[in-house]
Amino acid sequence: MIKTILISSILFISLISNSLSAGSSDTGSKNTLYDKAVNLINIAKKMEEKGKSEKAKKRYQKAQKFLIKSNKEKPNKADTLNYLGFTTRKLGDFEGGEKYYLKGLEINPQHKGINEYLGELYVATNRIDLAKERLKVLKGCNCEEYGELKEVIEGTKKSKY
After folding, report:
1. Residues 6+ apart with CB under 8 A from 108
2. pLDDT surpassing 70 at residue 160
3. Which terminus has fewer CB within 10 Å in the chain: N or C?
4. The whole model's pTM is what?
């Protein structure tokens, strides 16, 4: 009799717990503001490659709005600051983009994306010595960011920024 009550109780608790978790809003899906922004940025990059600059610009603007909200909700995330710098720069505000990148480097000085993009910004603003400093940070990473920035600095790859 005690075994039956114990088994019934365990089954009951298990069923309640499953139905409560089924109604949970956190399903583990990637629908955060940050994720939406990254998706828009990826779409905008592809549009730029196809020469659709105005459509890309609209995606960057929308992504930037999501990133600003995301940064307010969860401040001081290097990845968010990286993309805030990127979208700001893509929208023509190099000074604002640089501020986001530098703030991101305060959090994570080795961030590959920030170092690459900041280096590209320095090339675009004719500060090659600063771009080379970013390249030095990336040198040992064995990552594509190093190669991308190196090509931009050497002029073998045209920066779109």
Report:
1. 78, 114
2. no
3. N
4. 0.78
